[in-house]
Amino acid sequence: MKTIIFSLFILMSLHITAQNLYDLPENVETRWASFENPKAKKGVAAKENQGAKGHPFDRIPAGESVDLVNVNGSGVINRIWLTISDRSPEMLRSLKIEMFWDDESQPAVSVPLGDFFGVGLGKRVAFESAFFSDPEGRSFNCTIPMPFKTGARITITNESDKRLDAIFYDVNMLQKKHTANELLYFHAYWNRDLATKPGTAFTLLPKVEGKGRFLGTNIGVFTNKKYEDTWWGEGEVKIYLDGDTNYPSLAGSGTEDYIGTAYGQGTYSNQYQGSLVANKEQGAFAFYRYHIPDPVYFYNDIKVTIQQMGGAPRNKVRELVKNGAELIPVTVDHAPNFTKLLEMKNPPKLNDEDFPRGWTNFYRSDDVSATAYFYLNNPTHNLPKLQPQETRAKDLHTAEIVKNGL
After folding, report:
1. Is residue 257 located within the same domain as residue 357?
2. pTM for this structure?
């Protein structure tokens, strides 16, 4: 286990020291994969058109795939950059990025392209975090270290009904042998629920068995208009570790609390936490949290969920129900008291005279999607396959969100 933690420390050391800059390691070779050198081979880059920009980009017809990386041997991918000509919400959700480690046929990563690179909802904005960046809202950068022992393959598949006219990319890697006895492989999982059921938590990461580290998540929410513009972010993130069943080992105090802000949610981007889309009028929110300074390790299994819960004054909640909103009241803050309705044998009904007057938290139903990132001591996982393109790209509220996202 010490070797795993040591390897994680090396992989996740994102701050380069002065000594690192002038160290020259032995038996390490730098390689770049691009359309000018897709196999990342030594001495064969930029051969087309006599080296004069012969193959800077490619096209991906509808229904077809292209390999960004397909290499043999041992190494680590340190950076992925790419851009595409069509960055519409539909295309960002219809393009699928997959990653395969050590000649496995099952992908460790299978995620919509836009969501993988740090922003949900089929949206691009300018931002920078410790894992991802987009300097001007037109590109995709990832600096998560991705090690492999015998080979690596990264593919992009166009599952839309139209051709992608241009994709440019380069993937920067080192060819090297790994000294750790047990390697931790990079994985990512995406999930969407178009209408969460009140009282049922949204699953950020289904149960995964093995050893590893949960790196964090980016989440997107389209709020249900039946709740009007009431606050939606009271739900707690819960992390079930190493045999936890009914109750988790780790739990937060609210959605905006989990991403480091408070009393509502505007737009900001920090290294480890951020909220890149916060459009109350359109009910669109996209945000992230990365566990770098606060590692989340697991040694047998892990599962991560978030409650979909909102809140409003009692009379507003009554009005929402009268207008057809489905919800379940859970607590009422009526200082100095805090009433826990679900612990009461005979809790008052929302419209009863004795229902407390105060801020009322309630389970609600919204459109939630998320990408979870983690390391695992296996190049494959047991998680469900990526949902079909129709589910991924449905009801993205495209024009209004693109125009008013920030």
Report:
1. no
2. 0.93
